Amino acid sequence: MKNNAVPAFVSPIQDFLKDLHAQCAADKDGQVATYIPELAKANPNWFGVCIVTANGAVYEVGDTRQEFTIQSISKPFVYGLALEDNGRTTTLDRVGVEPTGDAFNSISLDPGTGRPRNPMINAGAIATAGLIAGKTPASRFKRILETFSLYAGRELSLDDTVYRSESETGHRNRAIGHMLRNFDKLTGDPAPTTEIYFKQCSISVNCRDLGMMAATLANHGVNPLTGKQALRGEYVESVLSVMGTCGMYDYAGEWLYNVGIPAKSGVAGGVLAVLPGQIGIGVFSPRLDAHGNSVRGIRICQELSRRLDLHLFNRPVAGKSTIRARFSGAEFNSSHVRTKEEGQDLRELAKVIQVYQLQGHLEFATTEPVLRDVLERADEIQFLILDLKRVLSLNESAGHLLHSLVGKLHDAKKTVLFTHCEHLPLLRRMMKKKLADRFTELFSTYPDNDLALEACEEQLLEHTRHAHAPNYKAKPADYHLFQDFSDAELKVVLPLLKPRAYKPGQTIIHAGDAAREMFFLARGHVSVLLPAEERHRLATFSPGMSFGEMAFLDGVPRSANIVADTDVECDLITLEDFQTLGKNHPAIKIKMLQMLCLDLTGKLRKANRELSVFE
Amino acid sequence: MKNNAVPAFVSPIQDFLKDLHAQCAADKDGQVATYIPELAKANPNWFGVCIVTANGAVYEVGDTRQEFTIQSISKPFVYGLALEDNGRTTTLDRVGVEPTGDAFNSISLDPGTGRPRNPMINAGAIATAGLIAGKTPASRFKRILETFSLYAGRELSLDDTVYRSESETGHRNRAIGHMLRNFDKLTGDPAPTTEIYFKQCSISVNCRDLGMMAATLANHGVNPLTGKQALRGEYVESVLSVMGTCGMYDYAGEWLYNVGIPAKSGVAGGVLAVLPGQIGIGVFSPRLDAHGNSVRGIRICQELSRRLDLHLFNRPVAGKSTIRARFSGAEFNSSHVRTKEEGQDLRELAKVIQVYQLQGHLEFATTEPVLRDVLERADEIQFLILDLKRVLSLNESAGHLLHSLVGKLHDAKKTVLFTHCEHLPLLRRMMKKKLADRFTELFSTYPDNDLALEACEEQLLEHTRHAHAPNYKAKPADYHLFQDFSDAELKVVLPLLKPRAYKPGQTIIHAGDAAREMFFLARGHVSVLLPAEERHRLATFSPGMSFGEMAFLDGVPRSANIVADTDVECDLITLEDFQTLGKNHPAIKIKMLQMLCLDLTGKLRKANRELSVFE
After folding, report:
1. pLDDT by residue (tens digit) across A104-144?
2. What range does the domain containing A368 cover?
3. What is the pLDDT of residue A535?
């Protein structure tokens, strides 16, 4: 295949965007803004579209690298910075958040307080610019420019020509500045703040920047490509809220109704739209409609919303998929290999261990079904293992619910064990705070399910009749492979066994070696470990069991390391002695082979049972 | 445990709601509405809270069964019915969707057209009532009452006393009716429509009903408990949009900013809030603030939003978790058991089979990462198996993307196979429509991964050197267990074999039977099937292989059925003959047991390899 003319794999999303771009390019309605000479110079045919997912996948078509000034699209981003600098209370005191139903340049100050109705109209934006911290006007603007650059993921700059043009003609905005000063919604001389406002509008961006900035808002304020935080996550919802209700001026209600994606436009032809948690959209086309919005920009957003089903209020039902798998300790054992008797005990006892593998984002609506499911079967549960390996995020609300669950089950003398939760530091932090001095006792965590299962099994087996003393040593006659052997048969076999002893941590079998012997464990525990970076245990054996028999039987090199967990005593039999046994005492060899077959059959049945859990 | 005093497992969510209820109950601010005598009779201390998830879990505290009249909360529900009766265009022509910043009883007609600004103010609600279809005023109201009952999941009724009281005092609303008639926003006599409006406001509900009605909107218009559709899914986003921008009157911007959940309140003290896809909230407390909103209702919504992190714009990042697992055909084979040579071939060849197990809701933002991942490795993929078993829903946007992917890979001579997609009829419908006459060729579906994997493997093996002719018959000397046997050894073993023949579909081994023989397959195929309702294949064997050896070796009753897939010829050996063989020809028995050990070891290694895929 490789040498044939294989078509390049252009994403269907790219194809779709290209088609959409071509369709909308045919629309020649609208006029380039002319209120300052610099904007009038724009080529009316420029047209770029860029979609960036909250994970950072970028799709772009057309003039996406053509620079233009950000204009009013600066407003929500400066508002976010104002929130970071002042908090919500002070910011709300200076600028409201109510839609006005008025046009973008309306003054719209509250008659009583002089407070601008919202930060998306010019008056509100100028009041917002006045909230940006910094010792000098220059340092205040520098912070704005740096913040915008964090959103865009590249260094942005001021378009000085446009700025001077804005400044020369900006008398209406200067009037607004003085009016705000009159109502004490600006402090000191309003002129420097008005200049900052002119400058923020004159920052040069391209269509791809708008897509990235939108995606940064969609991704909780973190640029999905650079991983840098442009806005503290807690303020993202506030920025999106004002975009949602006030972003499209007197068109806000209809916009939310028809498009359902918070958006902001600028008179240079840019449109930026954000679907929280999903995608950011940037469009650039300088032809404007009577509202001052880009004609093609509006149309692209409408089409994307309709064709990609992006309406904010058209959300799939959450919560059905949080439980990835649920199984009991009887269906799936730890890799601690048990004796036949222990295995039989566990098949009954371990039903009280329930493992829940959770996945996705844990928030209220997705965690609630887990609590409900656990509590419905709480009577049958003694140990609850919550496997968070595939949980992508956990918010405070989910943390509270899990904390309550732990407390409630503990009060009923049940145990909750968390596995794979290192990537969710909020969980540990919340548990520590809320459990206080009961933290160590109640917040039980394990690196993986296997160790958690083993811990539960050990507790369940502790008081059963088959429990061995901790330092139990099996006599050769107790080895499982010899369990039906007569004294006469034992007399033949035992001289073939060669004793070995190992210290804790010592490697008994090395992966890659040729397999020339099979082992019988007399005392201590050994574990089979994959030779990878992280500890991955395949099995742990106890006294009486044999190990290393698979490679011994099929002649394949050792596939894993076998390591002594404790002081270990064992016996080995070599391949040569095993072959000789067949010649001299075939009946005994047949007996041993049959026992090996039995052992393998048991292991295979267990593996197949466990595979069916994941079917 | 069962006999001890185990505490009842009250959900922590119930506890949380109880605490919140108790805290807010202390708030005695606000006054019961008095504009009609009936409302003034309400006990100011009544207070109920109910949360219903979009999956139908109900949590309620306080006076949740106390009846009261729905009042303005009727407006979004009647608006939904108007959309169903008239479509968006006609409805928008009669009533706008822009927030007004005005109070609930403001007339707010557009000065030019007389169109009410939105359906949440009285003027808009009366115009909306005028859009409800029906031959008589009685039948129009009956449709409204029936629709509300579908939302609530129980039969609701009119509170006649309140209705008469509303009607007697409703002069302002009558004035609005005539004004609307003047602008042709109502047709015919406005009086019957005004009466319908009075009646819709006088429908009696309780707090739990509000929670259910909200959850129905959160669940795409389907009541999550009854499963009945109250509103066509396509109109849910429109109803929620007007609630979002206009639901809280002149408080809408601040509400979205602070609470971020579309909501509607009524003067009898009800508040209803909807978080799409997640939960519905109903609150009832008759003390109202100056805006006419329930004081405790507002507070409960604020607290729930804050404590449960419910803000609409604070969404986790989608798309990271769509791919549940991905593995190649070399890591996980079909259960068609292969010969050693075929197995070796497949370990290399089957790398070009890639299985993607998808999960959750497939929409644009969650499907995009799948496409990206597939296309990035498209060069290495020859067969793409998309397992949709855990996909909960699929929207048109995702359907388009999958269709494009199928076409693109087909053009590059690659094959896409879908498995477990019967529960997503939209996928088949869209593929049928879009692929047209290429549908049968390109939309390849299998009931499970196993059959899809097998189909791919068969194609890969077709031209390899180890392929057998379709009707190939293995001679006993070709049986794998005898592969190292000398002629002399064969001469001993072959007389022990008893030939058997089976017709397609005939059961060779019955689950539950004692295992008294092991089989050698000479011709045809046999499959191991779990004795369950649906076909669940554990393995398929080909000529030369043995089957039924596990129970033969460990003496456990047969655990599955083994059925002839084709005309089958095989040989069997009985337990007695196998035992006798050990006595008379121990060396041969040792050889057979060693071969069985080898076979079991291979199967165990394969099962362990497959288990690690799901680690």
Report:
1. 666 678 777 889 989 999 999 999 999 999 999 999 999 99
2. 323-461
3. 64
- On whether any CB of chain B is under 8 Å from the CB of A349, the answer is no
Work out the percent of chain A whose per-residue pLDDT is above 90: 73
Please check the confidence at residue B510 and state whether its pLDDT lies above 90.
yes
Decide which of B97 and A465 is more confident. B97
Rounded to 5 degrees, what are φ and ψ at A606? -65, -45
Whether A91 is covered by a domain: the verdict is yes
Question: What span, in angstroms and rounded, lies between the C-alpha atoms of A519 and A500?
Answer: 9
B368 contacts chain A (CB < 8 A): yes
Is the pLDDT confidence value at A310 over 80? yes
Assign B54 a pLDDT band (cuts: 50, 70, 90).
very high
Same domain membership, residue B492 and residue B422: no
Asked about A157 being catalytic, the answer comes back as no
Q: Are B293 and B63 in contact (CB under 8 A)?
A: no
Work out the angle at residue A324's Cα, subtended by the Cα atoms of residues A319 and A329, and round it to the nearest 5 degrees.
130
Cα distance between the two ends of chain B? 33
Mean pLDDT score, B170-189: 91
pTM of the predicted model over 0.90: no
Residues A531 and A560 sit within 8 Å (Cβ to Cβ): yes
- The pLDDT of residue B5: 47
Residues A327 and A238 in one domain: no
DSSP-assigned letters across all residues of A419-454:
ES-TT-HHHHHHHHHHHGGGHHHH-EEESSHHHHHH
pLDDT in tens, B359-415: 888 999 899 999 999 999 999 999 999 999 989 889 999 999 999 999 999 999 999
- What type of residue sits at position B506? Q
Nearest Cα residue to B77 out of B39, B37, B129: B129
Task: Give the pLDDT of residue B3.
Answer: 43
Count of CB atoms within 10 A of residue B549's CB? 21
Q: Which two tokens stand for residue B258?
A: 């602070």
d(CA A273, CA A51): 10
pLDDT in tens, B235-266: 999 999 999 988 876 777 888 899 999 999 99
Interface of A with B in 86-115 (CB under 8 A): 96-101
Q: How far from A410 is each of A373, A396, B12, B198, CA to CA, in Å? A: 17, 21, 13, 54
Task: Give the pLDDT confidence score for residue B316 in this predicted structure.
Answer: 82
Q: Give the per-residue pLDDT at B471.
A: 81
Per the structure, the count of domains in chain A is 3
Tell me the three state secondary structure of residue A52.
Answer: strand
Which amino acid would we find at residue B576?
E
Give me the torsion for CA of B421, B427, B428, B433, rounded to 10°. Answer: -170
| Helix (H), strand (E), coil (C) string for B138-180 | HHHHHHHHHHHHHHHCCCCEECHHHHHHHHHHCHHHHHHHHHH
Residues A406 and A498 placed together within one structural domain of the fold: no
pLDDT surpasses 50 at B4: no
Residue A132's closest CA among A190, A85, A181? Answer: A85
The DSSP secondary-structure symbol of A122 reads: H
Tell which B residues from 369 to 398 touch A, by Cβ distance under 8 Å: 369, 371-372, 375, 378-379, 382, 390, 392-393, 395-397
| Interface residue of A14, A314, A372 to substitute, partner B, most B CBs within 10 Å | A314
Closest to A416 measured CA to CA, from A389, A397, A447, A443: A443
Residue B433 is inside which H or E element, if any? Answer: helix B425-435
Reported as a single tens digit per residue, the pLDDT across B29-43 is 999 998 888 889 999
Which of A540, A544, A546 is CA-nearest to residue A528? A540
Comparing C-alpha atoms, which of A99, A85, A94, A76 is closest to residue A151?
A76
Q: Please give the angle made by the CA atoms of B497, B503 and B509, to the nearest 5 degrees.
A: 60
Give how far the C-alpha of residue B50 lies from the chain's centroid of Cα atoms, to the nearest Å.
Answer: 24
Domain limit, last residue, from B238, B272, B307: B307
Pair (A72, A195) in one structural domain: yes
